[in-house]
UniProtKB/TrEMBL annotation:
Protein's recorded name: DNA/RNA-binding protein Alba
Cellular component annotations (GO), alphabetically ordered: chromosome; cytoplasm
Keyword field contains Cytoplasm: yes
InterPro entries associated with the record: Alba-like_dom_sf, DNA/RNA-bd_Alba, DNA/RNA-bd_Alba-like
Gene from which the chain derives: albA
Organism name: Caldiarchaeum subterraneum
Domain annotation DNA/RNA-binding protein Alba-like: ranges: 6-66
Amino acid sequence: MAEESVVLVGRKPAMNYVLATTLPLAEGKKVVLKARGRAISKAVDVVEVVRRRFVQNAVVEKVNIGTEEGRVGNDGRPRNISTIEIILAPPAQGGKKK
């Protein structure tokens, strides 16, 4: 399997993550974008910007979604936090394009 780069999406501007995603794709590596909670929409935006402007033939290979038990709220109960993992492959390695 090819090398993978992991990009953890958080509070920084989306273009920081676009750059962090584009460089490994240009080297032929897969990129795994991971985000939790409110950063999920930013991760999706990053993938779309990369695919539309920088690496047009990049392929979304797989999307995993899930839930983690997170911080304890004010009432003492644990909170559930949504998670997403998007695997982006360079054009030469990509599977089926959807």
